[in-house]
Amino acid sequence: MRVQFPTTRPRRLRASKIIRDAVAETQIDAGDFIYPLFVKPGGEREPIGPMPGIYRWPVGRELINHVEEALSLGINKFILFGVLPDELKNPEGTGGYDPEGVVPRAIRLIKEIFGDRVLVFADVCLCEYTDHGHCGVVKEKRDRWYVDNDETIKLYAKEAVVYAEAGADFVAPSGMMDGQVREIRRALDAHGFEEVGIMAYSAKYASAFYGPFRVAAASAPKFGDRRTYQMDPRNAYEALKEVAMDLEEGADIVMVKPALAYLDVIRLVKQHFPWVPLAAYNVSGEYSLVKAAATAGYVDERTITLEILTAIKRAGADLILTYHALEAAKWIKEGLPF
Fold this sequence. Notes:
By secondary structure, the protein is of the alpha/beta class. It has helices spanning 17-23, 61-72, 102-114, 149-166, 180-190, 211-216, 238-249, 263-272, 284-295, 301-315, 325-334; strands at residues 33-40, 46-47, 55-58, 77-82, 119-124, 138-141, 144-147, 170-173, 197-204, 253-257, 278-282, 319-322. Strands 1-4-5-8-9-10-11-12 form an eight-stranded parallel barrel, surrounded by seven helices. The active site is at residues 204, 257. Zn(2+) binds at residues 125, 127, 135.
C-alpha cells in the first residue's frame, strides 16, 4: 500500500476532538481500573506522606464510605493490602493468614455491604506481616540469609484460603516464589474454592519504583533486598517464562509490575499470550513522581496521568492497578484532554 502526500493527509483525522475521539485506537474508562486499598486494624484514616491522596483505612465506616465513593465513579474492583503495627509482626508473618486478621475482616465487611457489586482481590504475600520485611520465611545457611521458597509457598496457600473463606473473589500472590500459583491453586481447590480466581504477579521486577508503597504498608526489608526472588530489570524475555509457568500452574490473570517503565514487557506478554487477561500495576513510585511534579508545577497532572494510563492500556494491559483510579475516573467523565 502506497501512502503518499497530498492524497493522504493524516491531519484530516486530527482536525477536531470529535474526529480524534471517533478514530482513537485506545479507550480507557473506570472499568479498567483495580483500586489498591491499604487497610489497618482500627483508629482513624492515616494519610500516607509520599502518596498524597492515599490513606491507610481502618476496617469500618470510613472504608465503606470510600468504597461507595469509588463505586459512584464506576470503579468496582479493589485490591486489599494489610498494614500492621510493628508489635503485631513476627518472623513467620502470622498476621497474614490469621482468619481474624485485618484483610479477612475488610473482605467480610466489604462483601457484606456491597456483595456482587464489587470484585475483591486480596494480595497474598508476607512482607506486610513479617518483622524483617521480606516476603517469606527467612533462614540462614553458611552465614548467609535466604528466603525459604518451599516453606513460604505453604504459608501463601494458608493465606489464600483464609482470604477465600472471607469472601475474596481473587487472590493475588505477589511474592515471586517459584511454584506459588500451583500451591495456592491446590489449596483453594482442596478447600472447595474452585471458583476463586488467581491473579498472579507473574513478572514482578526488583524495582526502585516501590519505595512509597513500602512506606504505606510498612514493608521495607530490614536487611538486604529482594533481588534474589524478584526479577532483574535488565530482562524482558524472562517474563515470558514466568508467565508461562504461572499459567501452567493455574493462574487466571497474569500481571506485569511496574507498568510505566516496563511497557515493552506488557506488549511482549500480550503478543505471546493474547488470550490471557493481562493486568499491569501502575505502582506507587510512578504515582508519587507525578504528584510531586504536579505540585511543583512542572506538569499538568490530569493530562499526564490520563496519558500514562492510556499508554499502559495501549501497550496491552486489560486491567490497570492504579492509585490514580478515583481522580482518573472523575477526569474521564469530564472528557479526555487529547
